Amino acid sequence: MPQTTSFVIVAMTLSVPSYILSESGLSFLGLGIQQPDASWGNMLKEAQEFTNILYRPWLLTPGFLIFVSVLAFNLIGDTIRDVLDPKSKVR
């Protein structure tokens, strides 16, 4: 069991971005979280119209936040994998 903990931790940190993208994608399509509950997908759906982007450019912020959070979780997962990988340790 102790040998599998590193793999479980890395798998969890690398699977969180897919959960974030799945939820926001389903909410964007109208199949996930419904209004009035807040979701990044619901917020991006409001920014879909060109006039909304012209007059309210801050509506694109959820897209940037999705990008940053997915990138952060991927970098954290890669870093944990590199730290816990027994084959990469120099003796």
How does this model look, in words?
The chain is mostly helical and 91 residues long. It has one domain (5-85). Helices cover 68% and strands 0% of the residues. It has four helices and no strands. The protein has helices spanning 5-29, 40-46, 50-55, 61-84. The model has no long low-confidence stretch (mean pLDDT 86).
- What separation lies between the terminal Cα atoms? 24 Å
The coarse silhouette is elongated
Poorly predicted residue ranges:
none
Mean pLDDT: 86
Sheet with the most strands? Answer: none
Counting helices, strands and paired strands, the structural category is mainly alpha
Order of helices and strands: HHHH
Instruction: Give the helix level as a range of percent.
Output: 55-70%
Content of β-strand: under 5%
Number of strands: 0
The number of helical runs is: 4
Radius of gyration: 18 Å
Q: Supply the number of structural domains.
A: 1
Topology:
Layout: H1 5-29, H2 40-46, H3 50-55, H4 61-84
Helix pairs in contact: 1-2, 1-4, 2-4
Task: Write a brief caption for the model.
The protein contains 4 helices and no strands. The protein is an all-alpha fold and 91 residues long.
Features:
4 helices, mainly alpha
